[in-house]
Amino acid sequence: MTQTRRRAATMFLAAVTALGLALTGAVAAAPAQAAAPVAAPLKDKTYALSSYYGPRCMPVRGSSTYHLGQDFGASSGSDVRAVADGTVSRAGTVSGFGQWVVVDHVVDGVRFSSLYAHVIDGDQRVRKGQKVRKGQHIADVGSTGTSTSPHLHLEIWRGGYPNGKAVDPLRFLKKRGIDLTQRSTRNYARTVATSCRYFTAAKVRLRSGPGTGYGVLRTLQPNVVLTAKPGDGSGEWRKVTRSGRTGWVHRDYVSPSYTSQGTRYTLTSLNMRARPNTSSPVRRTIPADTSLTMLRDVKGDWQRVRYGSTNGWVSAQYLSDTRDGARVVPKKSGNTHSWVDVKKLYLRKGPSTSTSKVMTLRRDQRVRHLGKMRNGWLEVKHGGKRGYVASRYLTSNKP
Ligand SMILES: [Zn+2]
To answer: Which PANTHER family match (predicted)?
Structure first.
């Protein structure tokens, strides 16, 4: 071979190799991108698929009978990730869902929104108007709002939230290459009951239609058994049957469990209010771990109670059936410290998520009680800094 021919051959080989590498690279990278324009909302093998999209029996008093989303049971503080690139349209507090984040997307020409509910703090990681990337950590799994244990409630709205249509998140993501049933630790049975069994949560009127303008068929006593079909409701009203008579009851008075008319205990220090809303005057502040007498009236998440000789309303989410339900008992029974029971917890300047963050606390870190509790917020000290934390994320059991 001459010098020239050898050089030409080498160059040819180099070109073939480069082309080959380029092809291999293209072949390896392209399907992964094309197959998954979306991402899973939680890390693989960190969640269980619990409650599915579709008609269901009400899981808690006042809840929906048609599940518009998919529930993922996961530990408190787990990372919640954006399912696609998009723009945050809502972040913060909302009634029912507690804390939420909503992201608007356009993927392959399809406009949709993803909604992440019951998170610890909706505006902790993202703000309204912020652009986020697929897979970005946007919130943390919590149990805020109408929820009984830490879980992510994910909704997908085709056409966008709230004017589009809520579709099955599992199907929507599977169509785009993400099969969440293969990535979970456990999938609960996807059975839809043919009939739901409920109890009246108070003395209530059974009406001929879904509204107070309809006639009264009869008056029902507290804790009588009702039957209903999953999904049978209209807005805030539920279609129920009692002793062969079918009518309508407001969802606030329909409960899947027997409503204790006896005694319940406060989980935290709690304000008793004159009316069932946070803007009505505070009548008394009730210490944590105090027994209260349940009265018959309920309104949404509010329960009317008697404390000493005072009657008033408290938020039912801070009540427990048992005394050991109280996780944090400031001052009382000599409890002077608690431990952080979530991955991350913000110490804030004031007793609300709208106040600024002082520092980030980590799981198992110890906080000293300063003893002032307001609406589920406890004033604490850690590392020389004082502030407020949401007491539901603390435990009085030493890790
Ligand atoms: Zn849900």
So the answer is: MUREIN HYDROLASE ACTIVATOR ENVC (PTHR21666:SF270), PEPTIDASE-RELATED (PTHR21666)
